[in-house]
Amino acid sequence: MRLLDAAQVDAALDDLVLVDRLAATFRADVEMPVRHHHPIPAPTGPGSADAMLLLMPAWTTPPVSRGQPAGRIGVKVVTVFPDNGLAGLPAIYGQYLLLDGATGAPLALLDGTMLTKRRTACASGLASRFLSRPDSRRLLMIGTGALAPELIRVHSRIRPIEEVMIWGRTAAHAEALAARLSAALPAAVGRAVRVRAVPDRAAAVQAADIISCATLSRTPLVEGAWLRPGQHVDLVGAYQPTMRESDDAAVRAAQVFVDTRAGALKEAGDIVQPLQAGEIEEDDVLADLFALCRGEHRGREPGDGRSITLFKSVGAALEDLAAAELAVGQAAP
């Protein structure tokens, strides 16, 4: 069985290749039960935040005749401990086990934290291909955690981003991330990109062509009153029904898309809460990545510079499976 640590997973995955692999996997036949949530109450005692254990299995359809490549089975085990930041630790840890679909034999164990970061950002990049304006040049990143630099880089490779604005609850964190990416991002995308921290979230939302948000917020950070025609909103955090990053007005103003309909309608606070309040109906969720990748919905129509699009992701196990297979195939022996 191969072991791939975080550095090996990172080195094996190219953003645009992974975006293409995700698109192909959403077009394919993959079994993907809705992920299992197991709450862990206050693990470090009274006053601490509840933690979560997540199990995310998926498997490809096994071969029907000899000569076809064997299918694969994968499962990711993830822990989310929101208070870890107080001790200088990541909030999320994960491991991914890849198995042979024909025998169940273990093939590889991969660092799931890196795998999650890379596939999550690339899922947003895949959605952006369908939903953002091709001429999008200004990106706002709300949040300064581990996903922020991944999302910034992928969005900047999908669209011709010239300016990145970063907003965080702690201004010093936004400034530090902007300083780090000012040199790293142009090298990663092969062109000049201005990166700066911004103090005014509302003004930055209004100025951006793409707004990406990756936080654990329980209160809206993107308000519909701030949005303007032609923008694309990418909501990556708020993975529980009690969390949200957009308000009802933002969801009402936008054409709404999700990564998977089953997951978003059950888990995504940005969708679940306005549904429960009667602000939107299930039919207002126009399509998921399955429908977009299979050509059942075109996303933003060519030449449409007016519509506001909103993509909400909660994560899908098939994304992990696609990324793990690609990483194992591309990693150096």
From TrEMBL:
GO terms for cellular component: cytoplasm. One of its GO terms (biological process) is carboxylic acid metabolic process. Pfam families: OCD_Mu_crystall (PF02423). GO terms for molecular function: oxidoreductase activity. Signal peptide: none annotated. It comes from the Bacteria. InterPro entries: NAD(P)-bd_dom_sf, ODC_Mu_crystall, ODC_N. Belongs to the ornithine cyclodeaminase/mu-crystallin family. This is Ornithine cyclodeaminase family protein. It comes from Vineibacter terrae.
